[in-house]
Amino acid sequence: MFYNHFVYITTNEHRTTLYIGVTNNIQRRLSQHYFDSQNSKKSFAGKYNCIYLVYYEGFESSKDAIAREKEIKKWRREKKKSLVTSFNPKWETLNNQII
Fold it and tell me: Which CATH number fits domain 5-97: 2.40.50.100, 3.30.70.1060, 3.40.1440.10, 3.40.50.1370?
């Protein structure tokens, strides 16, 4: 199935900070996070170097993706960590696995 929208979670090198976002182009968005972390550090992801993709979910509609992002953002940290662990048990960087 082809998805047009993604909810994703990035983290920093030591896996201590989580950033949850939604996008219609995950590769471009990861590049933006990386650029900001190396340069202006104006965004949350850039300021805290959240450039390592550890979780993503695909959606056909932007409405569904935005609703899921809002749902996850309301969760406590432990629940977010459990979500990542169930998808990516070793918290490996998935940046190069995104097509």
Answer: 3.40.1440.10
